[in-house]
Amino acid sequence: MKVVLSAGLLLLASTIAASAYVAAAPEIDAYSGLAAMGLVGSIATLFWERRRKQ
Amino acid sequence: MIVAKSAGLRSGVGALHARTANASPAVWVGVLLATEVVIYVTTYSFHPICTYSNPLTACHVLSLAKVHTFTGMIAILLLTLSHPSLSRLLYAHEDDRGGWTRRRWLLLQLIGFAIMMLPWRLVFGAAISVQLTLLCWVLGGTLAATSAAFMVASPARWRTALSEVGPLAVVVITVGALTPQIVSLTLDSWNFEPLRRATFFAVVNCLAALGVHATADVPNYTLSSETFSLSVAPVCSGVEGIGVTIVFLACYFYAFRESLRFPNVWVLLPIGFALSWLLNVVRIATLFVLGASGHPELAVQGFHSHAGWLMFSILALTIIGVSTSTPWFQKNHTPVSDSSPLSADWTAARIIPFAAFMGAALLLSTFTLVPDLWYGVKVLAMFFALAAYLPVYRSRFAWQLDVFSIVFGISIGVLWIAFGKTIVPIGTPVDTALAALPSTLLVLWIVLRLAGTIVLVPCVEELFFRGYVLDRFSHNGLVWKLLGLFLSTVLFAMMHERWLIAAFAGALYGSLYLRSGRLTDSIAAHATSNALIGFYALANSQWSLI
Q1: Using the beta-carbon criterion (under 8 Å), do A39 and B310 form an inter-chain contact?
Q2: pLDDT tens per residue, range B319-336
Q3: Residue A34 phi, psi (nearest 5)
Q4: Residue B236: its chain A contacts at CB < 8 A?
């Protein structure tokens, strides 16, 4: 199952990247994306850390 | 007493050696490979193969070769991490007796990397053919990758592990390497007409419910008012959001697999898709309202490019919040809120100010045309987040003047200015906007900008990148410290447009922290750099330099 998920993740990530490149989608701004990843990633990390300490 | 001290010193050194020696070879190899990848990518970015006197098609072939190799490597990494037979190899400790030693494989690995770097123009000083370049990359890459694998575990162990995996390995690696071709074939799926139609009609109904007048041209998927119109293109149908949601949920399920209850959490997939689609409808409706109400520039240049990420953040945080607080999604029934208070949590004290900073940045980029003009909002977000944890910082920090910190800080500041003052443009939108401000507001903006840059940003960034990320790796030996330094530096560099010099700065700030164990040293260095840059920007009215 993990392998299937991993392969799916790879395909989807590549598909999104290809779509953004080919369509030159203006709605995908790189720096906003980094800010969003920073926000979501940091909150998810906080939850993970507090779960780990329990 | 003297004998006891010597014994203690010997056991301390022995423990240090044991901690370093016990680090799996996979960690060393991972650091080596990551360094080589950075060198390879950086070299061929600054000296692109396509500047040679080769036709455009040759450039395309070489670029594709790099992409195929990259996706193939990612597939191999994912397969290794996820299959027990292969992931056991990453934690193996073998002695070097019998067969080749790790040193010999290291030598071969470095030779392979050197072959990959041969086409670099400065070595030959002349153009090199596409065929020879591809040959160097394929031969050198195969030698480098194979040798790296054998540095981790012997060929016999790899043979045993791969025989347990079976034909799956070939399938996964082939699919990974051919991902660019698969992507090309599936691109048409982005033009999913039923979803586009559903999105269009949902936006029409949403605007009608809000009492916003819009003329709908259904065949062309266009909405118009007297002064503004937009078209719902195929890529706006919400399929991108669904794709990003799948990627997020896959990462989330994997990271939280120990605490999430399967199969219950699978229901988050359709919920996530539905929420993503709904938020996309809200995004398009809001875009139209902004444009039709006299803000077309904000709608097209600001909101349009950033709202998708804001919606994704809302979706992701909602899923995290609901799944961690709902017992039905959890393996044990203790919600996160039952742990130690958030207001006194040292981990939260290092992470939440950074999250507040990122959230403010995202909101400003979505709802303003010139985000830097509203820098005060970021200052307020950082200030209140830091203020909430002031008692925690007071109990942890002991400020001490360190000469190295000041010297490093000044060095970074000088480098940043020296390399930036000629390449950073003058007359940017923020310069134009500032010129139009009344003098009182301009002074207020400058005070907030400098306060944020010199005091708050160093605290926020050092607390997260060095205080949390680097610190997470710094208690298990030298190899893990280097890995933590590399990871924190890469993440820090990604947050800055001038990533190369930011990486250098991050590495120096991280080294200061590892040297003394005091976060205040890296904060002082970062604040010193930013003070130099901030006052230079003030003196020259070159705010884009920051």
Answers
A1: no
A2: 999 998 899 999 875 555
A3: -65, -40
A4: 27
Contact A23, B190 (CB under 8 A): yes
> C-alpha angle with apex B460: B350 to B541, nearest 5 degrees?
175
Of B51-65, B186-200, B400-414, the least confident: B51-65
pLDDT tens digits for range B410-426? 999 999 998 886 666 66
Paired residues of B223 in beta bridges: B216, B230
Using CA atoms, how far apart are residues B353 and A34, in angstroms rounded to an integer?
16
User: Which of B67, B85, B313 is most worth mutating to test chain A (most A CB atoms within 10 A of its CB)?
Assistant: B313
Give buried/exposed letters for B158-174 (b at 16+ CB in 10 A, else e).
beebbeebeeebeebbe
CA triple B385-B388-B390, angle to 5 deg: 110
Number of neighbouring beta carbons within 10 Å of residue B427: 9
Decide: B260 and B330 in contact? Cβ < 8 Å. Answer: yes
ipTM (interface pTM): 0.74
The identity of residue B264, as a single letter, is N
How much is the pTM?
0.75
With 60 as the cut, is the pLDDT of residue B247 above it? Answer: yes
CB atoms A46 and B348 under 8 Å: yes
- Return the higher-pLDDT residue of B148 and B235: B148
Tokens of B190: 């982005």
